[in-house]
Design brief:
heterodimer; A: alpha/beta; Alkaline Phosphatase, subunit A; 2 domains; 8-stranded mixed beta sheet; 12 helices; about 10% strand; B: 2 domains; 4-stranded antiparallel beta sheet; elongated; disordered N terminus; disordered C terminus
């Protein structure tokens, strides 16, 4: 069986199209199921983000009761299977201070950095996933992996700061190729060996790094910062190669599926519904095979252009143009779109929860932060943007709670996340959003 | 052919540090521009340096649109870890091909004494040659030595001379000196003027969208490019070449925001015609139209607003309901007068890019066209606006016009909507994928519009209005300047492109005259002593309601 699997994978590298995955053998788990027999390595805790545009409808999603055993609302209903494995945060404030409220930008940038952005479409610092990856992704092949489920590589809200965001893989095929295409060696393979090419590439990269001093000469401050990012990227490529020389730890008993092939990836909702769980599954497998520990997935840009076939306007324009139904007190079509976001999130959690490893699932050994750009998109409101944290970070995060934020800065969530992920940090955010108060009641 | 180029370049190498480069070492220089190569610039450069046979595979980091231009973002963006990984793999893929058995005969100009041992002279010739072409300037002695050392150690460890070359070349290809166009200026009196190699590079990417050829590099090396006559000679040469079309295709793709097409989704349920070859064909139709008018026919640029001449392939002909009677992929076509088409504003590309998935949007069209053609961006709407009335098709307001007017009567909305909507309303005779229509929800569409005191009717009237509006050619001159220098369109002072604009108007609005005026104007190669910083307030062409 093992032999067959290797043969299949080798075939795949040489360019054959579809291969069938064959399950890993169970023998890698030790008797407690806690770690892998092969290496004795503990299961790492992973971090994920899930970005969805245009928020939810407050009257339909915020539970009345705070704390444990809160009431499941209409818009949280799709997430009910994971209620005990997640926390939801309502009423968190984004304080922009003297900065503008950049429509469809300030909210998500504040959640990702704890800082109200001073420029549109830019981050004023590294985003939270990058900060976490600096600590937890050491030694993995990829520091972070990004995917965009409506097909635009710009739909990624992970950044080292500034105007650059990390480009996302825009199709399941490109994501698959990056993760399991050339350069991927099945860690369970008996004849795993470091690729000698990698060592040669390392020498090349080190001479690129050597150019730093000369290249920086005569640069202005802005260009220096840009080249700092460039040389950081070179450094990360060097670290990635160092990681490729080491056999990764086999963590979960997973089967790598075949090449997903080409498929339509765009804003049409049925496609987003198909593509998102597929991307989530590939991301989960990448984490299960320890190729990365941080996976960022966005289903659209902040002012989401997702549309239901037959709806001439699409999601974003509908949030602005649909009238509030006076009897219902909300925008009915927008409310339907909101639910789709939650159903898609549930499909992501399902993929993560389906991977068994050690004493739990990949979701249990993860923390996933789901968040949006607006609370009430019609008027670009940013107070009370829905945030969900799923997974218990290998037991470091208590779950099952609804935290009613009561106007507390949204940065408290980010600080709590980082503490749960084991980042040594006391305060986070800037201006009115600078905080030292994590939700310690959630930290185990 | 290629070996001739190699010989010409070899002559350049004999003088690695001389002339103006001495000033470099003296420290009287400043980096005034640092631009990340765009995907097309990268691909064109590789094809020109190594030949079209060498394939480039990988994903390029996206650019962002700043004040209407992607080019501007090249002086803001860096390279992310994901982007570098891709560049690194591309570099290795290219270097592997160049040095493989199939290509080395043509692309490696010397033969080593032994294929299994280091050969300093041959490695130096190879790396120096491609170093010059990739860095767009000669390598310094220490730069060359670093690559030679790398190649030597790779040859030693592999026992193969060409493996050494491969990794030396891969290093050049992922160096920031290749991936970024570094523009270096020298201080002369109170101003900073670009050194000759930076001039050659700026001219070449502007006019041909690629790396400078050997003649341009030679004129930089000899200092000719810093003389008035020498500059004019090179500018004329570049203008006379058919390769000017590549350069202007890149400019128009950027200015007209045609890249937006790559991510436009239309509702196949409402518009089943959309999809397949249509989006790339629509983009190509517009590019062929403008290139034909401005370069092949050397016509008046303003006519791009009124011309009924276009180029169609089979899928565009189907969309426009035109019989396709041609064996080739594309055929020239002239729409009849009664078609209602008038220039590129009534082509499928512009009409469909700035629309909703299943409904036309006068506001989106108006906002985009005002910005693209008149350099008049519309501010983003205030946060707290109720747009509900516009969308209620069940009420008394049947057409988009009636619904828009109702909302534009609100004082907070009026100032902006009066600015952008008229353009869009005159185009309501075309649906969201650019098809012609006369009614909406059973009511005849009113196509009249009034803008800045001028009244006009439908797409034809709009085309004429824009053609006669002096702001249109002025805007194009401004955009070409911003594109060439990768600065923010909105921050360009009119004085800096005044000379170019004069040459443009004097010629009767010929594109070549504009380019030439720009390239020869004293402002083109000077820089302010402060490093230019561009703010990335992106123009949201595609996302405003």
């Amino acid at each position: 069986m093992k032999l067959q699997r290797r043969t299949l994978l080798r075939g795949m590298f040489q360019g054959s199209v579809a291969v069938m995955g064959v399950p890993f053998l169970d023998c890698f788990l030790d008797s407690k199921g806690q770690a892998l027999a092969a290496t004795g390595q503990r299961i790492p805790t992973r971090f994920s983000t899930f970005f969805f545009g245009l928020g939810l409808t407050t009257s339909l999603w915020v539970p009345k009761k705070a704390g444990l055993d809160y009431d499941t609302t209409v818009q949280l209903k799709p997430l009910e299977p994971f209620k005990k494995k997640m926390n939801v945060f309502s009423g968190m404030r984004v304080m922009v201070d003297d900065n503008p409220n950049f429509q469809h930008w300030s909210g998500n940038a504040a959640i990702a950095t704890g800082i109200a952005p001073t420029k549109n479409s830019q981050f004023d610092s590294k985003t939270i996933d990058q900060t976490i990856a600096d600590v937890i992704s050491r030694g993995t092949r990829y520091k972070t992996v990004q995917a965009a489920a409506s097909g635009d590589p710009k739909h990624c809200y992970s950044s080292l700061g500034g105007a650059n965001t990390l480009p996302a893989e825009p199709t399941p095929l490109s994501l698959y190729t990056r993760l399991f295409g050339p350069g991927f060696q099945d860690p369970s393979s008996g004849d795993w060996k470091p690729d000698p090419q990698v060592m040669l590439q390392q020498s090349v990269l080190s001479t690129v790094s050597d150019e730093r001093k000369d290249f920086m000469k005569d640069l202005g401050a802005g260009d220096r910062a840009r080249m700092d990012q460039y040389f950081t990227s070179v450094r990360e490529a060097e670290l990635q190669m160092a990681a490729e020389l080491k056999r990764p730890d086999v963590i979960a008993k997973v089967a790598i599926p075949g090449n997903p092939g080409e498929m339509p990836v765009n804003y049409a909702l049925p496609n987003v519904r198909t593509v998102t769980p597929l991307m989530a599954k590939l991301g989960a497998l990448a984490m299960a095979t320890d190729q990365t520990r941080v996976f960022n997935l966005a289903i659209s840009e902040p002012g989401s252009n997702i549309f239901v076939p037959g709806d001439p306007l699409g999601y974003h324009i509908t949030t602005h143009m649909e009238a509030i139904d006076t009897a219902l007190g909300y925008q009915p079509k927008v409310a339907e779109y909101n639910i789709y976001s939650m159903e898609i999130l549930a499909s992501v959690l399902k993929e993560m929860d389906a991977i068994q490893e050690g004493d739990g699932t990949l979701l249990d050994h993860s923390l996933l932060m789901a968040y949006s750009d607006q609370s009430y998109a019609k008027i670009h409101a940013v107070d009370g943007i829905p945030i969900m944290l799923a997974g218990n970070a290998s037991g470091r995060m208590k779950t099952g709670y609804h935290i009613a934020g009561g106007g507390n800065p949204v940065s408290r969530v980010g600080l709590t996340v980082q503490k749960a992920m084991g980042i040594a940090i006391d305060n986070w955010g800037k201006g009115s959003m600078e905080t030292r108060s994590a939700y310690t009641e959630l930290l185990a | 052919m290629r070996s001739k180029v190699i010989l010409a370049i070899a002559a350049l190498l004999s003088c690695a540090i001389c002339g103006d480069l001495a000033a470099w070492a003296a420290g009287s220089t400043q980096v005034v521009g640092l631009r990340r190569l765009s995907e097309q610039e990268y691909r064109n450069s590789i094809a020109d340096i190594f030949g079209k046979d060498i394939s480039v595979q990988g994903m390029f980091e996206p650019q962002i649109r700043i004040s209407g231009l992607l080019a501007t973002s090249t002086s803001v963006l860096s390279v992310t870890p994901v982007g570098f990984e891709a560049f690194s793999k591309m570099a290795d893929g290219i270097a592997l091909q160049v040095t493989d058995e199939k290509h080395r005969g043509e692309l490696v100009s010397c033969t080593p004494k032994s294929a299994t041992a280091a050969d300093e002279a041959c490695a130096s010739e190879f790396l120096g040659h491609y170093g010059l072409l990739l860095f767009r300037r000669p390598l310094t002695a220490s730069e060359l030595k670093a690559r030679m050392d790398l190649a030597r150690s790779m040859t030693k460890s592999s026992g193969d001379f060409y493996t050494g070359l491969r990794y030396g070349l891969a290093q050049l290809l992922q160096s920031p000196n290749f991936l970024f166009r570094k523009e270096v200026a020298m201080r002369k009196g109170g101003t900073l003027a670009l050194e000759p190699y930076s001039r050659a590079t700026r001219l070449s990417y502007l006019m041909w969208d690629t790396t400078p050829d050997s003649e341009l590099l030679q004129s930089a090396q000899s200092g000719e490019l810093n003389t008035v006559a020498g500059l004019e000679k090179q500018v004329n040469r570049l203008l006379a070449s058919p390769r000017l079309e590549s350069g202007m295709r890149a400019f128009f793709t950027d200015m007209l925001a045609l890249d937006t097409f790559d991510t436009v989704s239309k509702d196949a349920l409402i518009y089943p015609k959309w999809g397949g070859a249509m989006p790339p064909s629509a983009k190509e139709e517009t590019l062929r139209t403008v290139i034909n008018l401005t370069l092949r026919e050397n016509g008046d640029v303003r006519d791009m607003m009124t011309t009924r001449k276009t180029f169609l392939n089979r899928s565009m002909a189907a969309l426009y309901d035109v019989d396709f009677t041609f064996d080739d992929d594309w055929m020239a076509h002239e729409f009849p007068k009664e078609s209602g088409r008038s220039g590129i504003v009534t082509q499928v590309s512009m009409l469909s890019m700035f629309s909703h998935p299943g409904q036309s949007s006068p506001t989106k069209r108006g906002v985009a066209l005002m910005d693209i053609f008149l350099c008049e961006p519309t501010p983003t709407p205030p946060a707290n606006v109720d747009f509900s009335a516009i969308n209620d098709t069940t009420g008394p307001l049947k057409t988009v016009r009636e619904r828009l007017m109702a909302h534009a009567n609100t004082p907070t909305c009026a100032s902006c909507h009066n600015h952008s909507d008229p353009i869009g309303l005159s185009l309501e005779g075309f649906d969201t994928i650019g098809g012609r229509r006369l009614t909406e929800n059973g009511q005849l569409i009113d196509l009249s519009a009034s803008l800045q005191g001028k009244k006009f009717q439908d797409g034809t009237g709009l085309g004429q209005y824009l053609r006669d509006n002096p702001r249109f050619p002025a805007c194009m001159a401004r955009k070409l300047y911003a594109y060439a220098k990768a600065v923010d369109t909105e921050e360009v002072e009119p004085s800096v492109f005044k000379a170019a604009y004069k040459s443009f108007t004097d010629s009767g609005f010929r594109l070549r005259a504009l380019i030439k005026g720009l390239a020869l104007s004293p402002e083109f190669f000077t820089a302010s002593p402060h490093v230019q910083e561009v703010s990335a307030g992106q123009t949201k062409l595609a996302s405003s309601p």
